[in-house]
Protein: histidine kinase
Organism: Streptomyces dengpaensis
Amino acid sequence: MSTRDRTRHWLRAHPLALDAALATGVLACIVAGSFVDPHGENGATWGARTPNALSLTLMVLGAAALVFRRRAPRTVLAATGALSLVELVTGDPRAPVVMSAVVALYTVASATDRPTTWRVGLLTMTVLTGVAMLAGPLPWYAQENLGIFAWTGMAAAGGDAVRSRRAVVHAIRERAERAERTREEEARRRVAEERLRIARDLHDVVAHHIALVNVQAGVAAHVMDKRPDQAKEALAHVREASRSALNELRATVGLLRQSGDPEAPTEPAPGLARLDELADTFRNAGLPVEVARSDHGTSLPAAVDLAAYRVIQEALTNVQKHAGQEAKAEVSVVRVGPNVEVTVLDNGPGKDAGPEGGGGPKEGGGHGLLGMRERVTALGGTCTAGPRYGGGFRVHAILPVKNRTPALGDSV
């Protein structure tokens, strides 16, 4: 920190010392000015004079009052104005005691609002100038009287300009701070939403593939001794499911890398174009899946396409885990007006069925159904899930084709 900066910081921390220095400077100027006669004698342009004791006393009192100008600006203005009136009426009218009132008026104008500045400024100008013209010993048109009017007017205008500039700077700084807080809050909100989205994707990927690995591993363990060929096939499915899980996990977690990272994923987000591939993974795991679609030719936003895929994936995963070995699943994707409707049905129950029967999750299950509803709701759609009449479970999602919600999944 430079010497000037340290001095400025110290003066801001000690305003009374700054006002005392200002009062000393004003006193020195008005005392020096009181010894100068602008008219001179014997036709001289400039001359010298000696102020009387009353004038010197009024100068000292007026300058001393300026020490407290920030604590009580209007009181100091009243005191210095009164001292100036006494000087104008009883003392030497050429003694510049009124300069202390000019400084006090500037302080009032810089510390109050504009209407107050107008009222106080006009009152000060009128009283001081009027008394000097009407009650002073000099002619009303003397330049000293006109000088009082000019100096008080400039003091009021200068104080008001300083106050206005200070207010503008404060408003700009406040707007900048508010904008910074808004940007930080928006960044935190986006980070939270991104974390939630990534958590949902991780849940969908892990739940789907781990369920397949669990089923195929159980099959392999059951037939290992009697039918080694079938066990080998089941283990191959385990390996394929685990590889797919690793690839999708790598793609999802890769979103956390920097944009310039060359290892960042370039594969597009999964969508209904991969629905047949998804169904084949469950068929290979022993779950018969029938797919019916009437949405061919429909172009979906990336977020809607991803949401539909994840809903089907989660629903089939729940069927695989809860509906039993004899269960079957039916998937339908239908375009209805401005929406796409996704339905997943199963015919449970099985021994691992949920409390209502069918392929719903058991009590204390995970957050799959909640994640589906949140994902669909975020896009302006609806999602319902519950047991079917006569057994089984039904998941039904309605997704708008033209969603107006920011597509958080577009960058998956």
